[in-house]
Sequence to fold (200 residues):
Amino acid sequence: MNIGKYIFAIIVSLLVSQKTVGQVDSVYTGEPKSKGDKKKQAKSDRFKSIQDKITYGGMIMPGFYASQYGNVFYVTANPNVGYRLTDQFTVGLGLNYSYTSLKNRYGKYSQSIYGPGAFGRYKIFDRAFLQVQYDKLNQPDYYSGTDKRIWVDYLYAGGGYFQSFGENAGLMYSILYNLTPGRNSIYYNPLIQIGFVAGF
Fold:
């Protein structure tokens, strides 16, 4: 056998085996094999970091009761999403919707109220917080004598307490005061809210 061919075959075998070992190491150690993989990993880490700062919450509350004016059915929903700017301060946006139906011997009356909202929440202790909230609601004009609807501004301030029942998830209790009361205001002071939040 030609000695040159023999040496060449040994060198090729060593190179192939080294390349194979390098590929196996990257697979089993999780190290990116290329710059493209590193960029994908960095992008994934950034997305995860942003995702960890997003909070979800809100409330869905149906109810029924009998009053001196008739039987009342209502449902209220206000989903929201927030973003933690810091470990203590969260800002967010939400939607508000409520439906009320009154039925008595004279007939049936129903109304819907809806609109956007925004909030800022600051943790002063591990589970206690201060909150400012603004809602702009489309609702009936109760003093027009017609079916006219109007937009009403609501600005609240107050605080609350977070009760955990999982990792960063739990119930949120808050007491807020309407700083802009008016004759068409639908909420009395204080406004008590109970809702769910994930990512507190």
